[in-house]
Amino acid sequence: MKNLISKNVRELRGRVAEACEKYDRDADDITVVAVTKTHPPAVIRTAVAAGIHNIGESKIQEAEPKILEVGQIARFHMVGHLQTNKVKRAVQLFDVIQSVDSLKLAQEISRRAGEAGRTIECLIEVNCSGESQKYGAPPDQCLQLVHEVKALNNINLTGLMTIGPFVEDEDRIRAAFRSCSELFKKGQAIAGDEFDTLSMGMTDDFPLAIAEGATMIRVGSALFGPRQQLDS
To answer: Measured on CA atoms in the order 13, 6, 55, 57, is the torsion positive or negative?
Structure first.
């Protein structure tokens, strides 16, 4: 497993470099978040040993025992939908919450972070694909949400996140990413220099996200293979 993950990390970096060369981007500007959902704690340790510094998880109940077991060996990102009743644990476990999709959720994150004596980094999730099954703030509400979340005391708002449409049409995928990129640029004018993270693109579509300005990609299966069934 260790050798395979190390090989996959090298290959992923090569693919990122190729995309950056093709689309006139700097590979040093792209942060990889390795998504380890459904994989055991040993995979997190191996990924970190292979040079990965950012780990993504999607569910509190799965992430909590894994993070507690491995310790703070990386920056942990909450990349899945977050319910308000799980916020207290989320702000204790994660360094970054990428899935803020409402003012109500942001207010709860700020309140719970304040109780924990923390200021937590957050991204606003935007539903730029328009798919009803996806979470995320509607694009036309994004900039107002930037204004509102930026004002909360215990949140450091650093950017936007989106998930591309699950289609094979590259033009449609790029259009969704381009929409988020345009909102990101407008958000920078509102939120300032710390608003510097555009998280979009996964294993199947990250080169297209890089083409449209992504600074962070979230990759799971390219590094770890198919999702596993964790023991309950």
So the answer is: positive
Question: By the 8 A CB rule, do 96 and 124 touch?
Answer: no
Continuous H helices in 56-214: 60-70, 87-93, 103-115, 139-150, 170-191, 206-211
pLDDT exceeds 50 at position 232: no
Give the residue, 76 or 226, on which the prediction is more confident: 76
Give 159-193 pLDDT, tens digit per residue: 999 999 999 999 999 999 999 999 999 999 999 99
As a whole number of angstroms, the distance between CA 49 and CA 4 comes to: 12
Place of tokens 């600074």: 215
Count Cα neighbours of 132 within 13 Å in the Cβ-side half-sphere: 0
Banded model confidence at residue 19, pLDDT cuts 50, 70, 90? very high
Q: How far apart are CA 218 and CA 1, in angstroms?
A: 20
- Identify whether the C-beta of residue 171 lies closer than 8 Å to the C-beta of residue 135: no
With both helix axes pointing from N to C terminus, report the angle between 41-49 and 2-22 in degrees, rounded to the nearest 10: 60
Tens of pLDDT, residue by residue over 20-43, are 999 999 999 999 999 999 999 999
Residue 228: pLDDT over 70:
no
Sequence-ordered list of residues with C-beta below 8 angstroms from that of 1, at least 6 positions apart, any chain: 42, 43, 46
Place of tokens 């920078």: 188
Q: Residue 95: which of 71, 115, 61 has the closest Cα?
A: 71
Q: Which domains does the chain have, with CATH numbers?
A: 2-223 (3.20.20.10)
H helical segments located in 30-77: 41-49, 60-70
